[in-house]
Every structure is written in C-alpha cells, then in structure tokens.
Amino acid sequence: MTPARQRALILGMILIGFAIAAVFGLRALHAFRQFRGHPPPPIAASNMERVETDVELIRGWMTVPYVSRMYNVPPGLLFDALGISPIGNGEKSLEQLNEEYYPQADDFVIASVKAAILEYQARDTPVATPVPHNPPIRPIGPIPP
Hints:
Layout: H1 3-34, H2 64-71, H3 75-82, H4 94-101, H5 108-124
Helix pairs in contact: 3-5
C-alpha cells in the first residue's frame, strides 16, 4: 500500500469515527433536553401499589405534581390550597413557590401542602362497614360421605 493511499484510508476512518461520535452526541443532547429535571415518583399509585401517607417526608425540592403522584392527591387540590395557578408553576419546587408567592412566611407552602394532603386523606378514607355475624347453618340431616 502506498503512503498516499494509507493516509487516505486513515483520514477516511477518522472522518467515519467523527460522524459516529456526532450522531450519538446529538442523540444524547436530545435526550438531555427531554429530561424534566426530576425523577418520577418512587411509588406509582396507578399500579395499585402502596401510596405514601406520611406527609413528614415532603421536602422543599419536590414539585406539586411529584407530591400529588406520590400521595395520590389531585394536583389541582394542592394548587387550590396554595392559592396559586398551576400554569407555569408545575415545574417549580415547593421552595421556589414559597420564595415567589410567600417570601415573608418560611415553609408556608410545605405546611399548606401537608395540611391539604392530610385533609384529603381524612375525607377520602372510607369508613369500614361492620360485617354482620352470621352463625354457620347446621345441616338438617347427616352429611353424605
């Protein structure tokens, strides 16, 4: 193989390598743009799995949609409890909402969300109906073998 041909082959392989790197780099960039900034809730209520009930686990980094999925509470109910519009506020954390709408009251948003969830859980929990006690029925005659 002549040096010119060898040089052209090496240059071609380098260009193919750059093209492959560019394709996968653009795919990674597109995937990062689609990422919303927070993971899905750890427990999916739609799968009929256990729903979280301990409101003391709510933290300031969580968003209202995240909390609503985690505790199986309608997000509109939480926004109504806070007195703010869901438009443009769904991606903001509870801390950011507190700083924007209630800067004079520390942790007001978290406390309001906790209270709204507890109220929803209290009224959404069905009252157990007592099961009537029926004694077993005795057979009239002997039971055939």
